[in-house]
Amino acid sequence: ELPVDENGLVSGDDVRAGLRDDTILVAVMWANNETGVIHPMDEIVQAVADHQAFLFSDATQAAGKVPVSMDGVDLLACSAHKFYGPKGAGALLIRTQSPPIRLPKLLHGGAQESGRRSGTLNVPGIVGMGAAAQIASERLEKDAAAMRSRRDRFEQGLLEIFPEAFVNGAGAERLPQTSNVSFPGVKAGDMISEIGRLAVSTGSACASGSGAPSHVLSAMGLTKEQAQGTVRFSMGRHTTDDEVDSALELLGAYARRHGLVSAPSTL
Length: 267
Fold this sequence. Notes:
Layout: H1 12-18, E1 25-29, H2 41-51, E2 54-58, E3 75-79, E4 90-94, H3 123-161, E5 166-167, E6 178-182, H4 188-195, H5 215-219, H6 224-228, E7 230-234, H7 241-257
Parallel strand pairs: 1-2, 2-3
Antiparallel strand pairs: 3-4, 5-6, 6-7
């Protein structure tokens, strides 16, 4: 387990310091799914290469949002639904350069998936994922610029409504669509339930409902109360300016009802 700084970043130096003589694999997510913080993969790739270990990166949150490369990465995972492909389809990319990577079979039986996972191939899912990846690649710069612009405008408006709120990971490079915001004195779950009309979350989808503070935010130095007052907002390819304004209006109304700030009635 590697340490992170106040922005949730894993540095190349931390990776290098954490490597042991018996380390054969390093696993680092490309971008964090809660905060959107993008790790310095060039630094990490170099640190792992100098040690001659293997590098696996979970790029599920990054693929389709920012450029992702296999350069220096041995194994990379991504999921189709994260870039508007079909749910239930994913990919594990394995570098082909020497020396070869030999993985044990996940399921035994037929020779599908290069002998690693037996069972009838999900052809519609595979084709759909490929098509979605092609579209995402073609639209990458345009979509990222639009989402980043709306995210920044949303954060600016949000911090005007809640002056004591803060954006987690704001000091690092982030995915263009993600805002992870802590609201001091607010219970995030209660806030989400009361507002109702916003499809937002208190953490990652795989950990929602656990009741425990986010381990990501805790590692960044947030207190239990701060972590429990945190909401993750996400933009998408189809998010509009009007929807951003509507979200700010709903949040402003919540702030006024609870006397958190003298927020204006229209934004």
